[in-house]
Each structure stands twice: as C-alpha cells, then as structure tokens.
Model the fold of this input.
Amino acid sequence: MRAILRELWFLGRSRSALSAILLLAVLASVAVAFGLAETARDRAAIAQVLALQAEEDVTVAARTSDAGGSAYGTYFPTWDSPSPLAFAALGQRDLSPSVLRVRALALEAQLYENEQANPELALPGRFDLAFVTVYLAPLVLIVLLHDLWSGEREAGRLAALQAIPRSLSRIFISRAGVRAALVALALLAPFGVGALVEGAALGTALMFAAALIGVVVFWTLAILAVARLGARSTVNAAALASLWFGLTLVGPAAANLVVTAAVPVTEGPRLARENRDAVHGAWDLPRQPTLDQFIALYPEWADTAPMTEPFHWKWYFAFQHLGDVAVADLSQAYRQGIERREQLSGVAGWLMPPVGLQQMMHRLAETDVTAQLAYQDRVRAYHTEIREFYYPYLFRDQPFGPEDFAKAPRYQPDGGIP
Done:
C-alpha cells in the first residue's frame, strides 16, 4: 500500500501524466454519453414508428374489404431494439436499419434495397467506448509507460536504484500497475455509469468490463516489453507508436482486404435488383403454369380453382413468392459469404488481440454481424407468417374484413409470433 501511495504521489506531480489520464476519462465519458444518446434515439424512433403504425392500422382496417388489397397495401413493422450494452459498442447498428416495415410481397428486395455495406472487420467507426478503448487508451498507456526504465536512466537515477536490493523491481511494478489501473478506471467508471443507466445484466457487464481490462493489460505488457529493451525514451515512443499503428490501423485494414478477396460476396443491392427483375418478369409469363409452380411448393392449395381471369390476387402473390425462390440460392450464398467473412475476421482477432477484444465487445453488446443476421432471420420468419396468414383467404376466396385483419400476426422482437 505504501508503494501504491508513493506512486500516486509521484504521478500527481506529473502534469502530463495526469492530463493524459483525465483526457482519456473525459473522452470515455463523452463516448458513453454519445452511445446512450444513440440508443435512446433508436428506441425513440422505434416507438414513434409503432405509434404511427397503430394509427395506420386503424385506417387500413376500416378500409379493408378483400384479402389481396390488404396483403398488398399493409406494412407490417419489425424492429431491432438496442441491447443494454449497445451504448458501449455500436458496431453494425449504423449499417443496418433498426426498423424495417415489410409487406407480403417478395422479401429479398425489401431486405437489401437500402443496404450500403456489411464489413466484418472495419477501420475506426462510430465514436463509442469500444473505439476509445481500442484506439485511444493505448496511446495514453504509451505516454505513461514508454520511459519507465529509460526515463530513470536518462535522469541519472537508475544506477542508484539498482544499488538498493530488491527495490528496483518493486518500484517499476508498482509504477506500471498504478498507471495501468488508472487508465482502466478511466474507462470502467463511465462504462459502469452507462451500464447502470441501461440496466445491463451484471454478468454481461462484467464480461464487457473484462474485455476493456484485457485491452489495457495487453498494451501494458506490450509497452513494458519494448521499454525493457534498454533503448532511449524517444526510440521507445517511436517503436510503440509504430506497433499501435500496425495493430489498430494497418493490420485490420490488411486483414479486411484479405478477407474480402478470399470470400467474394454478391452485394445486397444486386440481390435486391435480381429479386425485383424476377418478380417483374412474371407479369409476362403464362399465369396457370406460374400458379402450378407455386402449388408445387404449397401442395395444400392444389384444390384452388384454376386461373380463368386475367388477374387474381392468388396468382400475384404466388409469383411474388416465386421471385424470392428464384434468388434463394444467391441469397443463401450471400449469407454464407457473410458468415465466412465473420469467421475469418475472428481468426484475425486471434492474431491481433486488440481487434479480437473489440469483436468480443460487439458480440456482448449484440451489435456484431451475428446479431444483424439474427434480426434478418426473425424478419424472414415473420414474413412467412404474414404470407401464410393471407393464403387461405386468397386461395379459397374467403371473405376478408376488419375482424380478419385484426387476426394478422404481430412481430415479436424475440422472434416469437403470437
């Protein structure tokens, strides 16, 4: 305890060290505040959409007179609420919509028409606590620890310290431990406040905190290993800055290029375009063969009346679904490519521990690619429920009114459909 108090006293006399730690604490606090504001904005947007949707449903129900018109004109909302730890690691949430309204029409185009990118291993993204931890905290540690030995030698005190038995290692261990602990505290204190505000589960919050501490421990050990080599302080600082640059910027960028080249993936907008082309092309195809192709997938509707008129809603929604079937292989390949890229990114995380710890933060915050794909799975399942809800009315020509519209399935965030 005496050694810790001594190092705290020495640290208090160093304006540059104190300034670096305080600056990190301020940046971490700003990042947490920004993350809380972002997640609050997402929740407010979801609430607003649901409120407006409720009003729209009242109007739609009042005008409902047939199942086909209802299925064509009704939007059904889905949403992906931020997790309690999303404020600390926003991840993929800025690349995918938090609210998606779908209709009973072809789904693939609705999923991907607004997609811009889906990187699994990105360079610096949103300013959140994960960004501060992975990119800025190491710089503060470099400032605090790069001259741990060389500073004493250049000040002419190292020889005197070495003459005192067993004191040198204790001094340096205490000094490094106190400074690393203060850096960790600068990150953990704002995180703890944010986790309390969001009501995060204790176990998950502790694992996230462990990832934050892991970044501090990794860089502390790396800096001490370089500083112990005996070079001058300026050389140590330059070497550590190069290491930081390589592990946080160059390495992830290179890994991203390798992963992208190794696993080519068709862009979502192209998938959406091909889906729309398949749907639009169905207007020029013979109607009964199109309906027969759909019935081969849904044989329970084989007893539906044959097509005799130029247009029928059952034929229209049949070729809408066939449009999804036409691009099913491309959609599956796209998903498998994304999953494969994520797996390779995980390998890069093992080779570059700071990147791996950042991926762990996104995983715990449920803002990674896996969470994004899970939301798509929930949307797909819900879309299937919507389609199959309308099919009995369409293929059996059953009457459809406001009371039937009220029975339509409603989306549940956990994937369950009441």
